[in-house]
Amino acid sequence: MRTAVGQFTASPDWKDNLLACQDLTARAERGGADLLVLPEGVLARFTEDRHRIREVAQPLDGPFVSALRETTEGGHTTVVAGIHEPSGDGRVFNTLVAIRDGRLVARYRKIHLYDAFGDQESAHVRPADEPPVVLDVAGTQVGLMTCYDVRFPELARLLVDAGAEVLALPAAWVRGPAKERHWEVMLAARALENTCWVAASGECGPRNIGNSMIVDPLGTVRARLSHSPGLAWSETDPETTLAARRTLPVLANRRFAVSPRLLAPGELP
């Protein structure tokens, strides 16, 4: 499977962000990508007044997703990107959409919210109570995760147990002391402990680090971007996954299973 990760600097205007997504989608399609992973929350980005995402959130049949669907019509590439959609309780869902050939083929609403490092995503975003999502892309099983989800290895393991060979991870990773190191370590850890690929897209700009990358099943970075807009590419082939799992059979050797029961926010296991 040919995979691309793309990054750009999102603005408060959804129309500008749509144009950036359409441009990256067209470039990925021309390059023969089976999968394109774009950042989290690209409908609109508010560096300071983050509560405004409530005002600008759009439903999945709204103009942003509808236009992105039209962009993919007749194409081959599956595009995974993050938006905010109304949740019904005054907050929004932080939602990933997977779009291919004009169709919405999957949706994942973020489970783990970024209530850390002085931030409180849950003030504006409603956590999902839905199971993780795995979809087929060109014969490869792709699991969906969003940003802060990467800090929770049990979610990655549940996706791999459900058949995922690639983890697609849109993000808007906030700058801060050692934060870029956290990003790099955890992407490699999720890949290595599950012997799977990780295709992670990070929004770049004044608030977020960019640093999109594709990591192979033995934790090696195969492609990466720095802090500027662009695309990075890699072949995320199943043969590499199978070879890694023969060499390092951690999935076969483990002694503990991860429970699929979803805890309520704040509930201790």
Summarize the SSE layout with pairings.
Layout: E1 2-7, H1 14-30, E2 35-37, H2 53-56, H3 63-72, E3 78-86, E4 92-100, E5 103-109, E6 134-137, E7 140-144, H4 153-161, E8 166-171, H5 179-194, E9 197-202, E10 213-215, E11 221-224, E12 230-235, H6 238-247, H7 250-253
Parallel strand pairs: 1-2, 2-3, 7-8, 8-9
Antiparallel strand pairs: 1-12, 3-4, 4-5, 6-7, 9-10, 10-11
Structure described in brief:
With 269 residues, the chain is of the alpha/beta class. The chain has helices at residues 14-30, 53-56, 63-72, 153-161, 179-194, 238-247, 250-253, and strands at residues 2-7, 35-37, 78-86, 92-100, 103-109, 134-137, 140-144, 166-171, 197-202, 213-215, 221-224, 230-235.
Structure write-up:
With 269 residues, the protein is an alpha/beta fold. Helix content is 26%, strand content 25%. It has helices at residues 14-30, 53-56, 63-72, 153-161, 179-194, 238-247, 250-253; strands spanning 2-7, 35-37, 78-86, 92-100, 103-109, 134-137, 140-144, 166-171, 197-202, 213-215, 221-224, 230-235. The strands form two sheets. Strands 5-4-3-2-1-12 form a six-stranded mixed β-sheet. It has a six-stranded mixed β-sheet with strand order 6-7-8-9-10-11, covered by helices on one side. Helix 1 links the parallel strand 1 and strand 2 (35-37). Helix 1 runs parallel beside helix 3 (63-72). The protein is globular, with a radius of gyration of 17 Å. The termini are far apart. The mean pLDDT is 96.
